[in-house]
Design brief:
The complex is a heterodimer of chains A (489) and B (1092).
Chain A (H helix, E strand, L loop, with lengths): L11 H18 L26 E9 L6 E9 L5 E9 L4 E8 L4 E2 L11 E8 L4 E9 L2 E6 L7 E4 L9 E7 L6 E9 L2 E3 L7 E3 L4 E5 L11 E8 L3 E9 L3 E7 L7 E7 L6 E8 L5 E9 L2 E2 L3 E5 L3 E5 L13 E8 L5 E7 L9 E5 L1 E2 H4 L5 E4 L14 E8 L6 E9 L2 E10 L4 E4 L1 H4 L7 E5 L4 E7 L8 E3 L1 E2 L7
Antiparallel strand pairs in A: 1-6, 2-5, 2-7, 3-4, 3-6, 7-8, 9-15, 10-14, 10-16, 11-12, 11-13, 11-15, 16-17, 18-24, 18-27, 19-23, 19-25, 20-21, 20-22, 20-24, 25-26, 28-33, 28-36, 29-32, 29-34, 30-31, 30-33, 34-35
Chain B lengths: L7 E8 L5 H9 L6 E8 L5 H8 L4 E5 L5 H5 L1 H5 L5 E6 L2 E3 L3 H12 L1 E10 L6 E3 L2 E3 L5 E3 L15 E2 L7 E5 H7 L11 H11 L3 E12 L12 H4 L8 H16 L2 H24 L3 H16 L1 H13 L5 H4 L8 H13 L1 H4 L19 H4 L39 H18 L1 H5 L14 H9 L16 H11 L4 H24 L5 H13 L2 H7 L3 H20 L17 H18 L3 H19 L5 H18 L1 H9 L20 H5 L12 H7 L2 H5 L2 H25 L10 H4 L1 H20 L8 H16 L1 H6 L29 E6 L9 E4 L2 E7 L18 H11 L6 H6 L3 E7 L19 H8 L4 E4 L5 E6 L6 E4 L22 E2 L10 E5 L2 E5 L7 E5 L2 E2 L3 E3 L3 E7 L2 E7 L4 H21 L16
Parallel strand pairs in B: 1-2, 1-4, 2-3, 6-12, 13-16
Antiparallel strand pairs in B: 4-11, 5-12, 6-7, 6-11, 8-9, 10-12, 13-15, 14-15, 16-18, 17-18, 19-20, 19-22, 21-27, 22-26, 23-24, 23-27, 25-26
The chains are: A mainly beta (489), B alpha+beta (1092).
Chain lengths: 489, 1092
């Protein structure tokens, strides 16, 4: 008889152990799996690369080379770091003319480089290559009907969505494309209007060679549409796309907006106001393949309003005329949150048209701020100033309002400051309750002058700045650009 | 009254008879048969035979034959000498007949109308022991006894029956028949004449029967070794024939004589195939005598073909029965193969390959069972069969016992059933691997083609490896093993790779069978083995191209068995071995050698030893058998030391890599695509057999925890603890819980697979032994359910065999990347591979979880790039650059990679190129941000048209060896990247550098760049003169003032690594010699435990 037979069987300890291990491991495996860290999140069209980056690039497209509907514009390079960053700006026109300008962006300063005009072409794009990170690049356009400022794009993408636009009356809508990569692209453009989706045959299979830019006048192929949502899709490769809208009716205006590279489920418009005699709308574009249940929640300083809801079918746009909503009082600033459920999300924009009697510009369009942009790990955003003291975007350009909205469910601490080459100064600091908005008015912002304004928060934040001169909130809006966290590599 | 009995002449052939002769003659004298005459034929000299015969049989005729022509030829003399006899009784001189033998044989001849009648042979000294009761043979002439060796005569075989062979000691043959056939075949001098005569008798239409009532004692002086063969008869003194060789040649002679052409053409190739297999096995088992006998049988008969033609004509002249009729009495299949497999299954490899002494006598160990080898008896093979008595007179199974009752046979209780079950399992596996065996292997996982055998040796001994940007770390011992085996296979490295890949699965089954043998019954052992084969783990490893997983699958059961045996765990402590390898030191050394060999391919096997030892020790404690835990851990520790010493150069090189050392066990995969807990537990890690049905197999293995008692419960506890540890480690490693320590799950899960298979075996044994006598209850119900579940759980793997390749892709990255082997521009470049570590077809290093990289030369990779050193060395700067790009920290990745000579960046999308919307069953995608990051690089250009991979060409590459007019701007900065000015203007300069030779070429005056590390170990000579060197980018070399002329860049370093590798090889050889017993001094052989 072996020793085993002389002992008492100990059966239950091992059964218990096995049960504990199997069940415990099964329970542990149900916890969310961590995702691979590092890198900017997909879906942000603009993000200031980390200050310790080896190099960075910005792509600006949508400026004109000569006066007309759109005058030649400006690039504004904003350095958030404490060291000067050198770089080069390569320009290319739609006729293929190219040029290069070397630049050095001063530490904590802004630069509006003087870019020599190119010999030919009507539209121009720039590729800004910087030998370091921490620099934001924005572009400004102006013209007889108004002016606008918007971030350039820090990434290429295979898809770009533009939720807003109009070709009614004499309004014009231009889509500009740039291929900054070393691979040829094949691009299709499609447009969603209230009467359906349009795939103009001559805007299908557009070939962009490496370094080539292209402008397409949408009004020529999609005529007399009060709402036009645009999708730029590449068959191969990745591009950069921007939209330029000119309003030339009773309310004049000029807007340049970068595309959104992806749909999101949460969007914010930190500040808005309904003016008597004016109109405004929120365009909710569903580029996905399934319907979205969309809820629009407007919130006054005194509290939230009853939400507005709609089912947005795939490939359609919900044009919510906020100015006709009786629940939104005129003349009172409000913030708006947009939430989509059911699919991969929507893209949201806004068109504002002030009364024609208001100071120019009276009309403008802008993108809402996506949740991705509001929830960057660094918790920092920068709002570049509208030019420099020497070279303002337009005469008298100044920040008018800066709105910070807390889209999260927790109270956050925020700090708003501005930086000059000689140092930094805090403009405001405080706590932001969930779902609330704080607005810094022009008087508060005047201390910053045209210097870049930085916002810092310990949680998600949607930040946008209305820049004057403009007739109303939302006519010239500059969204804050998130800053990437230091790489530490 | 005149007698009516037919006349019988007893023909006794004798050669130098021994003292038993008188007793044999006396038995003839005492026969109660009146018409018996005796003719004694004395061969090879008189030696007083006549006197000795005369004293006992004064009426006998004695004839002296001056030469010894052999037994058959001598007996044939009676044909000329005797007239009028009705029967001949052909006797050896060492047979003693009972007094009634002759009359009973004659009587039976008439009653059965038999031409040949054989008595029952019993042992000379102990008549209760049976020797023969007739014999049979298979189609190849392998003679098979119908009884077990040493079987006691209880009258169990006392029925008259037809047999195929009448054993040659004493045969009664009808005189007319014998005369018609021309007697014995005179060409058969010894061994096999009885087979030949019996066969020819049956061809001529006569029956051969055994009459067990007639009993003959047989001394078997020749087969028993009491009388040596007469070399004048059997061959030269220098090369004497053995009984075995005579037996084999005469069996083949009978086959070639007695079949018709049709059957001969059918049987002879089968016999040749079996002979080839037997020779191979015999050579592997170092049984040269057997190999020589088998091979010699064919050459001998080939030399006698002309003689055979005449003999065939003679046989056909008397043919009355067709082969189909004659063959009814033959055994089906191959008796020797059946016996070998059964012995292998029941007693293990050593017993199956038991060596027979060259003289033909019982082997050096003298076990009687080995005598059976001479006849190829299947008796031994079926010795464990409960149904031996079910064999009818023809050796067939009737389904009824000898009393006519229907026999109920439990599944797998007979050896034949078990062999059939194993054969079926083998066929399923062969079917599942058919396309892999006959087709080419895709470039997937670790299936890169092996280099030529000479290149493998060079790589093993080289002091420099091209891995990354170059390293002096010693090569993995795997190249030594591949070099040795490749050399033995005469350089057939393709075959070696397939043997390595496909041989692991059956080898693992053999290992599992050996491991579990002491623990369970033969039936449970077979079921456990099939269960091990039926788990998806090995096929998952195969389908993902993981050689490390397959090697671990094959080796771990052996490791576990050796560990238990060396630690003296019951019941492994009862296993007795031979030689130095059975000593405590030897056992540790054998275990260490197995671990070393396996860990060469799969370094994580080292962890498995620790895991197994720890789990077994804890399991022992849990089960209340914790006494030997310390010994177990000590043995494991010692074996690990042996394994590490056997790979010491590589081990030191690995440890030198610092924190990267753990990378040798495996690279972390992405937690988001790692298998879930359910997939881990049911081993669903590959593209095939992923069905949840496998859960039932796992569940069935828990049976012994509920039913087992004693040693079965103890081992069930140990194995389940081991399984839990294995699953837990696999889960933690694959989900990033352990950080960068991420041993491959295909390896780590092997202990769990062994535990599940062992649990099923232990469960069956518990059912057989621990439930005996218990009343019907839940245990019986649970047992039935478990058996059903186990059977059910095998179905997914059986279904997975349908595609013939276990889900392994038909093509790998070799197709989309074929252009790498055809460079369009001169120069030496590198390829940077990025992707999930499971997807990369080369070895590499980790950037992040699920994100690894590798650098190879610009060509499709081979196996030297699969087993890479633990540390990347200066290639780590490449990882930093990629990490920077992925994080959005650069748009100049191409420039950052330029120093390493990277021309192409290849991102592998998955395990293999998938088509259309087919979803890969094993997801191993690259990081989501990688593509965007690479597309955002200003200097990388997409190479269009490649499927399954993303390829980018670096627009700012510098050839690995390059030259330009001006030197680098800031060459000495440590670990820096090229600036814009550094990466332009370079032209390719020299040929490729490898471990086999220097880089050569002609350079012009200016600066020469060499992207090989470590830069200090290379010397550039131009026109025979060394050129001054300075560091570039912290790891490469720049020769800023190089004159024009023929240049050579060579590795110049003291060859201490080749020397250390040589010592390593010698250590392997020494250990192999000790283990194989080629040199025992100064160790004493170890006696069996019983003797001690």
């Amino acid at each position: 008889m072996s020793p085993a037979h002389r002992r008492t069987e100990r059966r239950w300890p091992v059964l218990a152990l096995v049960a504990v291990v199997l069940v415990g491991a099964a329970a542990a495996s149900r916890t969310p799996r961590p995702s691979t860290p590092g890198g900017p999140p997909n879906g942000l069209s603009a993000m200031v690369s980390a200050s310790d980056a080896e190099s960075s690039a910005w792509y600006c497209t949508g400026q004109s080379t000569s006066s007309g509907q759109v005058d030649p514009g400006l690039l504004i390079l904003t350095n958030s770091t404490n060291r000067a960053v050198s770089g080069s700006i390569s320009s290319v026109t739609d006729s293929g003319a190219t040029g290069q300008t070397d630049v050095v962006v001063p530490a904590r300063g802004q630069l509006v480089p003087l870019i020599p005009p190119l010999s030919s072409g009507s539209w121009v794009s720039q590729v800004v290559i910087l030998s370091g990170g921490g620099v934001a690049v924005t572009q400004a356009v102006s013209g007889p009907s108004g002016w606008s400022e918007a971030p350039c794009q820090s990434t290429t993408a295979a898809r770009w969505y533009f939720p807003s636009g109009a070709t009614s009356g004499s309004d014009d809508l231009f889509v500009t494309l740039l291929n900054p990569t070393s691979t040829a692209d094949v691009v299709d453009l499609s447009f969603v209007t209230p009467t359906g989706t349009v795939h103009p045959i001559n805007l299908q299979g557009l070939v962009l060679q490496p370094g080539q830019m292209l402008m397409e006048n949408v009004a020529a192929v999609v005529q007399e549409r009060s709402a036009v949502a645009t999708t730029v899709a590449t068959r191969t490769g990745r591009v950069v796309a921007s939209e330029v809208e000119t309003f030339t009716g009773g309310s004049a205006g000029l807007s340049i907006v970068p595309g959104s590279p992806r749909a999101e489920r949460h969007w914010s418009i930190p500040q808005g106001i309904e003016q008597a005699g004016g109109s405004s709308e929120i365009d909710v574009f569903n580029p996905g393949a399934v319907s979205e249940e969309v809820t629009v929640r407007a919130r006054l300083a005194s509290g939230p309003l009853a939400p507005l809801e709609a089912k947005v079918l795939p490939g359609t746009t919900w044009v919510l005329a906020t100015s006709t909503q009786t629940r939104i009082p005129a003349g009172v600033a409000y913030a708006t949150d947009i939430e989509a459920r059911g699919g991969s999300g929507v893209v949201v924009g806004r068109i504002v048209q002030a009364p024609g009697s208001a100071p120019a510009p009276q009309a403008g369009l802008a993108n809402a701020i996506g949740a991705l942009s509001g929830a960057v790990p660094s918790g920092q955003w920068v709002v570049p100033g509208p030019g420099t003291a020497v070279t303002p975007v337009i005469t008298g350009a100044m920040p008018a309002h800066l709105a910070l909205s807390n889209p999260s469910g927790a109270t956050e601490h925020f700090t708003v400051s501005f930086r000059t080459p000689s140092g930094a100064r805090t403009l405001a600091t405080g706590r932001l309750a969930p779902g609330t908005t704080v607005t810094l008015d022009g008087a508060t912002l005047s201390g910053a002058g045209l210097n870049p304004i930085f916002a810092r928060s310990d949680g998600p934040l949607a930040v946008s700045e209305d820049v004057g001169p403009a007739a109303s909130y939302g006519v010239v809006t500059m969204p804050a650009i998130p800053l990437a966290a230091a790489l530490g590599i | 009254m005149e007698s009516q009995a037919p006349a019988v002449v007893a023909v006794v052939v004798t050669t130098d008879p021994g003292p038993w002769f008188e007793e044999a003659l006396s038995s003839l004298a005492e026969q109660d048969y009146g018409e018996l005459s005796v003719l004694v034929l004395a061969t090879g000299g008189e030696a007083g035979v006549a006197e000795r015969v005369g004293r006992i049989l004064p009426d006998a005729f004695v004839r002296h034959l001056p030469e010894n022509p052999g037994y058959g030829a001598a007996a044939n003399e009676a044909l000329d000498m005797v007239e009028g006899a009705a029967f001949f009784l052909l006797c050896h001189d060492d047979c003693a007949l009972d007094p009634d033998v002759v009359h009973k044989l004659v009587e039976e001849s008439y009653r059965s109308n038999a031409g040949v009648v054989s008595p029952k042979f019993v042992n000379w000294d102990n008549p209760s022991i049976l020797l023969h009761v007739g014999m049979s043979c298979d189609k190849t002439g392998a003679v098979v006894d119908r009884i077990q060796d040493g079987e006691v005569d209880h009258g169990q075989h006392d029925a008259v029956r037809d047999v195929f062979v009448a054993p040659g000691g004493c045969i009664l043959v009808r005189a007319d028949l014998w005369r018609q056939l021309g007697g014995f075949d005179p060409g058969i001098v010894a061994m096999g004449e009885d087979l030949d005569l019996s066969w020819r008798c049956q061809v001529a239409g006569s029956r051969v029967v055994v009459a067990p009532d007639a009993r003959v004692r047989h001394r078997e002086v020749v087969a028993g070794g009491l009388r040596e063969l007469d070399v004048t008869v059997t061959g030269s003194a220098r090369h004497p024939d053995t009984l075995q060789s005579l037996q084999r040649r005469h069996e083949l002679r009978a086959v070639m004589k007695c079949y018709t052409w049709f059957h001969l053409l059918r049987v002879l190739p089968q016999a040749a195939l079996l002979a080839l297999g037997e020779t191979t096995v015999a050579l592997l088992a170092r049984d040269r005598s057997r190999a020589s006998a088998v091979a010699g049988a064919w050459t001998w008969n080939a030399r006698h073909l002309s003689e055979l033609r005449g003999l065939r004509r003679e046989v056909n002249r008397h043919r009355l029965f067709p082969d189909a009729e004659v063959r009814r009495l033959q055994l089906r299949g191959s008796a020797r193969l059946s016996r070998y497999l059964t012995r292998l299954s029941h007693q293990g490899l050593e017993a199956a390959n038991a060596v027979v002494g060259s003289s033909g006598e019982p082997g050096s160990h003298g076990t009687p069972s080995e005598v059976a080898l001479l006849t190829g008896s299947v008796g031994l093979a079926f010795s464990e069969d409960s149904d031996f008595d079910e064999l009818d007179d023809l050796g067939h199974r009737s389904g009824r016992d000898r009393f006519g009752r229907k026999v109920r046979v439990d599944p797998l209780t007979t050896g034949r059933q078990r062999v059939v079950a194993l054969v079926v399992a083998a066929l399923v596996i062969m079917a599942g691997t058919r396309e892999l065996f006959f087709g080419s292997l895709p470039l997937v996982g670790q299936l890169a083609p092996l280099p030529a055998w000479s290149a493998t040796w060079h790589h093993f001994f080289s002091g420099w490896q091209p891995a990354g940007v170059g390293t002096t770390a010693p090569a993995s011992p795997v190249f030594g093993i591949l070099g040795i085996t490749g050399t033995l296979l005469l350089g057939s490295m393709g075959t070696l790779q397939k043997v390595l890949l496909l041989g692991c699965i059956p080898l693992g089954a053999v290992g599992l069978s050996r491991f579990i043998r002491p623990l369970v019954s033969p039936r449970a052992r077979v079921v456990a083995t099939i269960s091990y084969l039926g788990l998806p783990l090995a096929y998952g490893a195969l389908g993902t191209g993981r050689i490390d997983g397959l090697v671990a699958y094959a080796a771990f059961p052996f490791i576990l068995a050796r560990l238990a045996r060396a630690a003296g765990m019951a019941p492994f402590d009862g296993i007795v071995g031979r030689g130095w390898r059975s000593s405590p030191t030897g056992q540790v050394a054998v275990l260490g050698a197995i671990v070393a060999a396996a860990s060469s391919f799969a370094p994580a096997v080292l962890l498995l030893v620790v895991l197994a030892a720890g789990a077994l020790a804890f399991g022992s404690f849990l089960a209340g058998f914790g006494g030997g835990a310390t010994r177990l851990l000590a043995v494991a520790g010692k074996s690990l030391v042996v394994a590490l010493v056997l790979g010491l150069p590589w081990v030191v090189g690995t440890l030198w890599a610092g924190t990267h050392a753990v990378d040798v066990f495996g690279l972390p995969i992405s937690p988001s695509t790692a298998p879930g807990w359910g997939e881990v537990v049911r081993f669903a890690i590959g593209p095939t057999a992923r069905s949840p049905v496998v859960w039932s197999l796992v569940g069935a293995s828990a049976l012994p925890l509920f039913l087992g008692k004693g040693v079965r419960l103890a081992w069930a506890t140990r194995t389940w603890v081991m399984a839990c540890a294995s699953w837990g480690l696999a889960m933690a490693a694959s989900h990033g819980t352990l950080g960068s320590f991420a041993p491959s799950e295909t390896v780590v899960l092997v202990p769990a697979a062994v535990a599940v298979a062992a649990g099923i075996g232990l469960g069956i044994s518990s059912f057989e032994m621990d439930l005996a006598g218990q009343e019907f209850g839940w245990r019986q119900v649970m047992s039935s359910l478990a058996l059903f579940a186990a059977a059910l759980g095998l179905l997914p793997v059986a279904a997975g065999a349908v595609d013939g390749r276990w889900g392994l892709a038909t093509t790998g990255v070799e197709q989309p990347l074929a252009f790498l082997s055809h460079p369009t521009s001169p120069g030496v470049y590198r390829v940077l591979w990025l992707g999930d570590p499971r997807a990369l077809p080369v070895g590499g290093w980790s950037i992040d979880s699920g994100y690894s990289y590798a650098l190879t030369s610009q060509a499709l990779p081979d196996a030297t790039e699969v087993w890479t050193p633990a540390g990347p060395g200066p290639a780590a700067s490449v990882a930093d650059a990629v990490r920077l790009a992925t994080a959005g920290g650069t748009v100049h990745l191409g420039r950052l990679l330029a120093a390493a000579g990277v021309r192409y960046v290849v991102v592998v999308d998955g395990l293999s190129p998938t088509e259309g919307n087919l979803v890969a069953s094993v997801a191993a995608p690259p990081p989501a941000r990688l593509q965007r990051a690479l597309l955002d690089q200003n200097d990388l250009q997409v190479v269009p048209g490649e499927f399954g991979v993303q390829v980018y060409e670096n627009g700012e590459n510098i050839p690995v060896t390059a030259q330009r007019a001006t030197p680098l701007a800031a060459p000495t900065k440590p670990l820096s990247y090229p600036g814009a000015a550094d990466a332009t203007g370079w032209k390719a300069a020299l040929s490729a550098l490898s471990g086999r030779g220097p880089a050569t070429g002609t350079v012009g005056a200016g600066a020469v760049y060499a992207g090989y590390a470590p830069a200090g170990s290379f010397t550039l000579k131009v026109s025979g003169l060394a050129v001054a060197r300075q560091a570039a980018f912290g790891w490469a070399a720049e020769y800023p003032n190089t004159p024009a002329g023929p240049a050579t860049l060579s590795f110049t370093r003291l060859p201490y690594i080749p020397f250390l590798v040589f010592l390593e090889l010698m250590a392997w050889c020494l250990l192999a010699a000790l283990i194989l017993g080629w040199r025992r001094w100064p160790f004493r052989s170890v006696r069996p435990k019983a003797e001690r």
